[in-house]
Design a protein that fits this description.
The chain is mostly helical. The protein has two domains: about 30-85 and about 125-190, no CATH class; about 195-350, no CATH class. The protein has helices at about 5-30, 30-55, 60-115, 125-135, 140-165, 170-190, 195-235, 240-250, 255-275, 280-300, 310-350, 355-360. The longest helix has about 55 residues, at about 60-115.
Amino acid sequence: MNDDKLKKISKIAFFLIFIILLIIIIYSLKSILILLLVPFILAYALDPVVDFFEARKIPRTGAIFLLLTFVSIIIALLFLSVGPTVQREIGDLQDALPRYSETLQEKVIPGIEKTFKVQFPSTFQEGLEEIINGFRGLPSASIKPFTSVVARVFSNTISFILSLLGLVIIPLLTFYFLRDIDQIKKVITSYFPLKHRDKLIEKFNEIDLVLSGFIRGQLTICAIMAVLYSIGLLLVGIDLALVIGILSGLAAIVPYLGTILGIVLASIMCVLKFGFDIHLLGVFTCFAVVQTLEGSVIGPRIVGKKVGLHPVWVIIAVLIGGDFFGFLGILLAVPVAAVLNVVLKSALETYRKSSLYLGQE
């Protein structure tokens, strides 16, 4: 084996070791990275606005202060306008609890018993006793997977709560990321090998375009879908329509999660209020229409084909990310997959031009 081949093999080995170590570090620090991810996404989304002001001779620091102040005012106005409605919906929900109980006893439970040929306990106490007796009859080995899942969920919940306690530093981190984001890009590109720097910078800019298009586009889509979901659920007439619409819109930052969450919550509220009737079809129609608009009109116009991933690959990426890294993995799955898509296309282009593919010596 000649020296050139040894050098190539050593370079590939070094690159693979670097990637493996990076994945291990990310996995070890995943709870902290969530706290860093939010301000970085905000900075990435707001950077073009700061660049716009900076191009008009406004100092970058001053432009950031103006922008963050403006965004804070907008958020405050949204809370002031939406807050009373949400508070009223929660109050109405408390008042409607006796009616929900009546609907559950008179319509929902009889309907389920008739359809699925099952018999529910007549009282809550009887149901609780049946559940406890069922667990007592199970062997200990069969309960272990359940207790393991509960422990893992509890552990992840504690980590998530601890991360929420650090939200006070998000505005500060957003400010610093916004101020230094251009410098960060320059530092990253400065470490590219001189021999391949132009080619790598071209791919880096392509990745930057994909990420910026996805992040800004997805945030815009989330806001639009929150409005559309809320309007649709209000027209159907279910309680907590605004709360469910906003939650579904926010959850849409992860593909399909907002739709699934919204359908589940809205269906529960619809059944508790109306039972199994035409209103439930209205809920499904609302989400089907909004999802169709997002896939055929809103998404293509705002994000376009910048991400370039088939829906099947999006689902696979989300499942893999969630399995390995939990909430952080779900959040990062699509942008990471989009970056890997750019890298893989570049690698395939290089392979097609190589002597191995062309069959040359």
